[in-house]
Amino acid sequence: MPSFVAFATAVRECWPDNCSLAEEENKTTMSRFWSTALLSTALMAPIAMAPRVLRAEDQKAARTYHDKQHNDDHAWNGQEDKAYRIYAKQNHRKYSNFSKLKEDDQQNYWNWRHEHSDALLKIEIK
């Protein structure tokens, strides 16, 4: 038993409850922990948010166009833009913003589009 008492006394002397060195080490360790946690969060946030932002941009950019000949509406989104680029290439036209086309040219595209589905054009639907 005397060796246990000596050991306990030695531990108490080496690591007292009010040791200022231990408190400073705790503060440093906690400071490093929070700095690392904050840095990790800052680096991971853009990676985690990127898919949501891309989907939101694709959906919010959707504008509706009315097809007079077929009496229906079409939402202009990323898939429709891909189809329009295929249309422009097949018809030997220079790509230009669809909203700036003349009404007749837009109608020609909608006529073509009714004959060419996403599956036929191999456009991936997300």
Q: How far apart lie the N and C ends?
A: 74 Å
Structural class: mainly alpha
Number of strands: 2
Query: What ranges have pLDDT less than 50 throughout 5 or more consecutive residues?
Result: none
Beta-strand level of the residues, as a percent range? 5-15%
Number of helices: 5
Major pleated sheet: 2 strands, antiparallel
**What is the general shape?**
rod-shaped
Order of helices and strands: HHEEHHH
Average pLDDT, to the nearest integer?
78
Please state the CA-atom Rg, rounded to the nearest Å. Answer: 33 Å
Instruction: Provide the domain count.
Output: 2
Bin the helical content: 55-70%
The strand line-up of the biggest sheet is 1-2
Q: Can I get a quick summary?
A:
By secondary structure, the chain is mainly alpha-helical. It has helices at about 1-15, 20-60, 80-90, 105-115, 120; strands at about 65, 70-75. It folds into two domains: about 15-50; about 60-120, no CATH class.
Explain how this protein is built.
By secondary structure, the protein is mainly alpha-helical. The protein has 2 domains: 36 residues; 61 residues, no CATH class. The protein contains 5 helices and 2 strands; from the N terminus they run H-H-E-E-H-H-H. The protein has a two-stranded antiparallel sheet. Strand 1 and strand 2 form a beta hairpin. The protein is rod-shaped, with a radius of gyration of 33 Å.
